[in-house]
Hints:
The structure is a single chain. It is elongated, with a radius of gyration of 20 Å. It contains six helices and ten strands. It folds into two domains: 129 residues, MutM-like, N-terminal (N-terminal domain of MutM-like DNA repair proteins, Alpha-Beta Barrel), CATH 3.20.190.10; 117 residues, Helicase, Ruva Protein, domain 3 (Orthogonal Bundle). The protein starts with a helix and ends in a 9-residue tail after the last strand. It is α+β, with helices and mostly antiparallel strands and 271 residues long.
Amino acid sequence: MPELAEVVYYCNQWLPAVGRTVAAVRLHPRARVFRDADPETIASALPERKLLTADTHGKGMRFLFSGGLHLGVHLGMAGRLFTAPLPYQPDKHDHLVLELEGRAAPGVLVFSDYRMFGRIRLHEGAEAPPWWRDLPPEPQDRGFTRARFEKILDRRSRAPLKAVLLDQACFPGFGNWMADEALWRARLFPGLRAAEARKEERARLYRDLRKVARDALRVIAPEWTAPPANWLFPHRWKDGGSCPRDRAPLERETIGGRTTCYCPVCQPPIA
DNA sequence: CCCCATGTTCGACA
DNA sequence: GTGTCGAACATGGG
């Protein structure tokens, strides 16, 4: 479920706990979300630590606690973060619950993920963890230059554009719907190979994918407002959905290994 | 029972 | 090395 802006939204859910100290940890030690972490260490290291900062990069999150303790969270397909008052009775899909000291709201921080494609990591040390170091610029960043974009397309010349946009090392935060949205706005067939995109088409894609990232952050990150009807988003999963631009029936096809929605009229497939 | 799902990773293969 | 494909992971919904 979560892509760039949804990840920011969920990260914000834990933000009210900045400055608060963890009193106790409740977790399910055999949950798959702990496959890259030692649950015992998480349970013993977090109590008495104060949450200092919370930030996101792409689909990843990093919560920094006092004493140089870094908690990494990836939401996978169905993960979410929320807070709740005490006393809190964990649901069966709540894999990590942090109880906070004091009586102020929120009482607990919860990481829930019924599919368990999500992931929790822990790192202790003065330096940033390996998984939070040397991160590539996000598409909405100033540092995400046209030159960088061109290099990516040149390197992935034989891949369909859809597959390239889903590469987290190149477009951190982009997922299935953002990739489709950007290609639709740029009027490019998702199966078009990067090398086949002409100069103007590349320019459109660069402009529109950055716009999609910024629009998503504006609309979804603060309150998770429903995306407007002039985006592809609200039409893409509906059977019988039609293109908000020309009303043509939308098509769905597996491209780059994922179900891809596009408009056959304004994003004509190459024969 | 079937198929599908806003994600990642790994192995087999061209 | 590049890229594709399918499976796997685990669960729920239609």
